[in-house]
Design brief:
This protein is 9% helix and 46% strand. It is mainly beta. It has four domains: 14-193, Chondroitinase Ac, Chain A, domain 3 (Sandwich), CATH 2.60.220; 200-391, Alpha-Beta Complex (Cathepsin B, Chain A); 397-559, Sandwich (Immunoglobulin-like), CATH 2.60.40; 566-738, no CATH class. An eight-stranded antiparallel beta barrel has the order 32-33-34-35-36-37-38-39. β30 and β31 (548-559) form a beta hairpin. α3 packs across α4 (245-251) and α3 packs parallel to α5 (263-278). The longest helix is centred in the middle third of the chain and has 16 residues, at 263-278. The chain starts with 13 loop residues before the first helix and ends in a 5-residue tail after the last strand.
């Protein structure tokens, strides 16, 4: 006799019920005339009898017999009784599942069941249960029915009450009605069995299927498992059929990566989504007992069909999903065997008592199943055909955050994708990256936003400012093969509106089995348009042997126009110059040193990666005796480490040229003076303190100013002509320079 198991689950999910089932078909007096079916469910056979206080029997084409006896239903009213045999029930649809629907019966009856199963089964491999399809959305609302089974002739008998909120369970020959308090209208009955002994003694002992692997983020084990299955079955070169984890989450309408996938989503939403992305039909099956689950997993794997398994995984809070890719049966004795599953665990982390759980992890079957709750169902998802031989085994993830890192968010697989602004950290003198992260956002068409990490609040950016420098990419790659692979990460950036490719770079790496990483830094200097916003589309592709596409993703952002900057430059420095003068005969008449102060002030404008500019002018003044002419030119150029938001002035060059000519109005006397000064400075760091709202102000004072100078040259020359004859000349040359507290 099978041990008594009483399981009742109360789940009030009215909104979910309305969304999951079709409308109820009733007659003119309100009686239900058809089962409530989902789109894949079908009625294989319906039998109706009139109950008039005498024995009524319904015998179906599969030899299942139902009997309604008056002694078990002493107060039952006369009624037309209709029972439907269903095909492809939403939960139980294997070859060893039989499902009946009793919802067309108006009042509950005690019903006897008879059926002949294969002989020699263990009672643990047989299940008879009643369940409520309308309330089994996130948890399985059911009640097990006691039965008797004769292993010699295979005859099974049971009694139950249906449809009823209080299903009857007990021995088939018992006249006592044992009711339990339930919550739902248990309108369906499932009879299932498994040939586990044949499985353990006659089939293959071991099976392994190589499968691509992805890592989850937060509670997205289900999405990562879906992505593994989709990558294995989707056509390699059809980029529109690629599955991206955040898009899978968005399809489920989850607001973040913490949402899971319940029974209904696993058996309905997810298979349909996978089918839409692969053009292949995906199905699910459900099991109350591990024996039937074990049998079906082995059967599917032997057909080269990996399965996603939905279960309550040890040491994982709530449900968990893994991709089962193999099994191993070890016959210890004729009566005892061990059974292990090989699976991809998208956690990719250490589990207490079980070591690291990642790709190709072996787990004892009994250990994996030990934490099942009464309201749980085991579910598997699989394709209707074997896995393709050309499936990729090397994969990459889209580096997206559940929420900004400054809000304690984490990315998929510890990956990193950020548009960065370089900043100098004054405390250490190091250049650090200020991140604009790609963050999941279900409200956006593409499923993500760009968020600037900020204190105290992160800022969502519709347009990326022109102060950014580069894209930082830390790209995990998973090699689910057992050999090394020559892999290439190809990154391309386009302005698709203009049909212009802005960037193309390949990084090569030989990657062994397991997890590795690519690191890239993509400069953005050539991405900007000087006048208009620009939408940038970046494609990241994983190639094998530099040409075979394996996996990839794309992302977009809008860049604001690159501004034309103006820069004011001014400085003051002191030094000493040597002045020497000669007369018309070439005799030295003056030789002395005197202090000099060098100053410059001018404006620079941006052009082609550097800053250059200054001022030039000329003037003429006519007096009574002489005419004076001036020419002045002050120029400067600066080269920065980045065109946008620089952190270092690599070279600043300032030139000041001056000339004056005094000529007597009679043309007899002419004095010409000219000077040439050149100042070169290098490696001027720009700190956070130098950055204002719309400008950079670098203010350095005191003796340290001279640390920035590479060289200074300064010359002065004066000549006096009379009647076209040189009468006197003077030269001045800077001999040294120094800084003071006023510099």
């Amino acid at each position: 006799m099978k041990k008594s198991i009483y399981t009742f689950v109360t789940v009030f999910l009215i909104l979910s019920v309305l969304s999951c089932s079709d409308s109820v078909q009733t007659d003119n007096v309100g009686r239900i005339t058809e089962p409530m079916l989902e789109e894949d469910e079908k009625i294989e056979q319906t039998i109706s009898v009139d109950y008039r206080g005498e024995v009524a029997e319904l015998v179906f084409s599969n030899a299942v017999r139902f009997s309604i006896r008056p002694e078990k239903n002493p107060n039952a009213a006369n009624e037309k009784i209709s029972i439907a045999l269903l095909e492809n029930d939403r939960f139980f649809n294997t070859d060893n599942d039989i499902v009946f629907d009793f919802i067309m019966i108006n009042n509950p009856f005690i019903i006897d069941l008879e059926y002949t199963l294969p002989t020699g089964l263990d009672e643990e491999d047989i299940v008879v249960l009643l369940y409520s399809p309308e309330t089994s959305v996130d948890e399985f609302d059911h009640h097990e029915v006691l039965f008797e089974y004769n292993a010699e002739d295979g005859k099974l008998t049971a009694s139950f009450s249906a449809p009823d909120r209080n299903p009857f369970t007990g021995k088939s020959d018992s006249r006592e009605l044992a009711y339990k308090s339930g919550s739902s209208n248990y309108s369906r009955l499932n009879l299932s069995w498994s040939m586990r002994k044949d499985l353990l003694t006659e089939g293959p002992r071991r099976k392994i299927i190589k499968m691509p692997f992805y890592e989850q983020s937060h509670n997205t084990c289900w999405a990562a498992s879906v992505k593994m299955m989709g990558r294995a079955y989707a056509p390699l070169n059809n980029r529109e059929m690629e599955l991206r984890l955040h898009e899978v989450v968005k399809h489920m309408n989850h607001s973040n990566f913490d949402g899971g996938a319940g029974l209904y989503a696993f058996r309905s939403t997810i298979p349909k989504y996978l089918s839409s992305k692969t053009n292949i039909n995906f199905e699910t099956s459900s099991f109350l007992r591990t024996s039937a689950l074990q049998y079906e997993i082995v059967k599917k794997l032997n057909e080269n069909k990996p399965v996603i398994l939905n279960l309550r995984f040890p040491f994982v809070e709530g449900g968990h999903q893994i991709v089962v890719v193999g099994y191993e049966i070890d016959m210890v004795t004729a009566a005892k065997s061990t059974f292990k599953l090989l699976f991809h665990n998208p956690q990719n982390a250490s589990v207490p008592g079980a070591g690291r759980q990642s790709m190709y992890t072996w787990g004892d079957f009994e250990w994996l199943m030990k934490d099942k709750w009464p309201q749980d169902l085991y579910q598997i998802l699989y394709a209707d055909r074997p896995i393709p031989n050309d499936r990729p085994l090397q994969t990459i993830v889209t580096p997206i955050f559940d929420k900004p890192a400054s809000s304690l968010g984490t990315s998929v697989g510890n990956s990193e994708l950020a548009i960065v602004i370089e900043r100098l950290r004054p405390s250490t003198g190091q250049i650090v990256d200020h991140h604009i992260d790609m963050v999941y956002n279900r409200q956006k068409t593409d499923g993500y936003s760009w968020m600037l990490r900020n204190v105290p609040d992160d800022i969502e950016l519709d347009v990326i400012p022109d102060s950014v420098h580069a894209i930082k990419l830390v790209q995990p790659v998973f090699n689910a093969d057992d050999v090394y692979a020559n892999l290439t990460l190809l990154v391309e950036a386009y302005d698709l509106n203009e049909g212009e490719r802005l960037y193309n770079e390949r990084t090569h790496k030989r990657v062994g089995p397991g997890t590795d990483r690519f690191n890239m830094r993509i400069p953005l200097d050539d991405f900007f348009d000087p006048e208009e916003e620009r939408e940038i589309t970046v494609y990241v592709q994983l190639l094998k042997d530099d040409h075979l596409f394996l996996d990839g993703y794309r992302f977009k952002f809008i860049l604001e126009p690159k501004a034309s900057y103006l820069m004011d430059v001014s400085f003051r420095i002191e030094g000493t110059r040597m002045i020497t003068s000669w007369n018309a005969f070439g005799e030295e008449i003056i030789s002395r040193a005197e202090p000099v102060t060098g100053e410059f002030k001018g404006e620079l404008s941006f052009k082609e990666g550097s800053y250059s500019g200054g001022e030039t002018w000329e003037d003429t003044e006519v007096l009574d005796d002489i005419t004076i002419k001036w020419w002045t030119e002050r120029l400067a150029s600066a080269r920065f480490n980045n065109d946008n938001n620089p952190t270092n002035i690599r070279k600043l060059e300032v030139t000041s040229n001056w000339k004056r000519q005094d000529e007597s109005n009679d043309g007899e006397s002419l004095i010409i003076e000219s000077s040439e000064d050149k100042f070169i400075m290098e490696n001027i760091l720009i700190t956070n303190d130098d950055i204002r709202k719309n400008e950079i102000v670098i203010w350095r004072t005191g003796y340290d100013v001279c640390d920035y100078f590479d060289s200074i040259t300064s010359t002065f020359k004066a000549e006096w002509f009379y009647s076209d004859k040189l009468m006197e000349s003077t030269n001045s040359v800077l001999t040294d320079y120094h800084c003071t507290e006023d510099s």
